[in-house]
Amino acid sequence: MSDHGFDIISPDAIRSGRATDAYFERTEATLQGAHKNPHVVAEVTADQFADGEFELLAGVKDAAALLAGRELSVDTIPPGRLFDGGPVMRISGPYLEIARLETALLGFLSHASGIATAALDIRQAAPDSPILSFGARHVHPSIAAVVERSALLAGLDGFSHVAAGDVIGRTASGTMPHALMLCFGNGNQELAWQAFNETVGDDVQRIALCDTFTDEVDEVRRAADALGDDLDGVRIDTTGSRRGDFRHIIREVRWALDEMGRDDVDIFVSGGLGAADLRALRDVADGFGVGSAISNADPVDFALDLVEIDGDPIAKRGKLAGVKHAYRTADGDHHVARREEPAPADSEALLEPLIRDGERVGEIDLSLEAAAERATADASLVGVGEQERQ
């Protein structure tokens, strides 16, 4: 039983291998009883062959922390690179060093990569607009940092969760919720905006929430009058049940601001938005907050499969036996080949050394900054989002 009141698996339980499926414990006991511990090569894959559906790899930093210090060697595609079939990670060593880690390893990679892939879709839907991740409220708080790191890795500009920022070394963004407006009461919107303006630090943008009690255009006009030149922007978060033609509402707000001579005031939009919404609104809104479309993404369906035992290729039915490489060609294509086959012409091997005999090696930079740079470059290389820019 947990003694801290929350249903959270501790880091110690993860590192020790306790965060595993029960059948791995029974497998360990069975192999130990039979005095068997073969040297294996295991590969983490989502799809066996390339199909043109790229996904964004994330979670490698946590995977490295799990696997380091053990009798294992690991090669991986660096975080922030797009993959399409074949292995994203290869692990070799005694099987009993791997068995009880499989569940946590796949969880680290699957969840983060699914969120990052969804965030990349959002990023490409409005490539020139500021976009913040607002989805931490839709997930268990223990993984909020996973959500925000994965969103930033995919190229988003910021996030909302304070404690996640503490973990990943970034500062959270955000201004005011409807609850603040409601606390001041209907008819007192100006008091709420002014109190906010007088209270928060100079480093916080003055973005007034303008859809709480009355028409959006009415509240925007009032906010512009109340805060004057201090007003940096307005946020429209109209609930879907009252929204109507959201694009038309935003255009009306822009018209009213321009009429007041406030073309310096930006319009930010949030509230249940997805990639299709951003494509439809990116020319009339100045920025977006996106929540569940990112945080509620399906995890990538990674599996860990043994492909070699004591030097001999092996696989269960439906999987490809033998050690494999994944390659990216200059034209952005992805290729999967056997280890002994020559690399395709004008290609780069995607898997790079990460761990050798338990020690970190190689030159893979696992930082968030490096992963985000790779994601931007790879998206351009493979053509992800090209249709969005046309």
Walk me through what this model shows.
With 390 residues, the chain is α/β, with parallel strands linked by helices. The chain folds into two domains: 11-115 and 298-389, nicotinate phosphoribosyltransferase; 174-295, Aldolase class I (TIM Barrel, Alpha-Beta Barrel). It is built from 16 helices and 18 strands. The protein has helices spanning 11-16, 22-33, 60-67, 95-98, 102-125, 144-153, 162-168, 178-184, 189-199, 216-227, 240-243, 246-259, 275-281, 292-295, 368-382, 386-389, and strands at 39-45, 55-56, 73-76, 82-83, 87-94, 131-133, 158-159, 207-209, 233-236, 266-270, 287-290, 303-309, 312-313, 324-329, 334-338, 347-349, 352-356, 359-360. The strands form four sheets. It has a seven-stranded antiparallel sheet. Helix 6 crosses helix 7, helix 8 crosses helix 9 and helix 9 (189-199) crosses helix 10 (216-227). The longest helix has 24 residues, at 102-125.
Unreliable segments (pLDDT under 50, ≥5 consecutive)? none
Rg: 25 Å
CATH topology of the largest domain: nicotinate phosphoribosyltransferase
What does the main sheet amount to? 7 strands, antiparallel
Please report the total strand number as a whole number.
18
Structural shape: elongated
**Helix count, DSSP H or I runs of 4 or more residues:** 16
Q: pLDDT average, as an integer?
A: 94
Beta fraction of the residues? 15-25%
Q: What is the topology, as strand order, of the major beta sheet?
A: 13-12-1-5-3-17-18
Q: From the coordinates shown, what is the CATH architecture of the largest domain?
A: Alpha-Beta Barrel
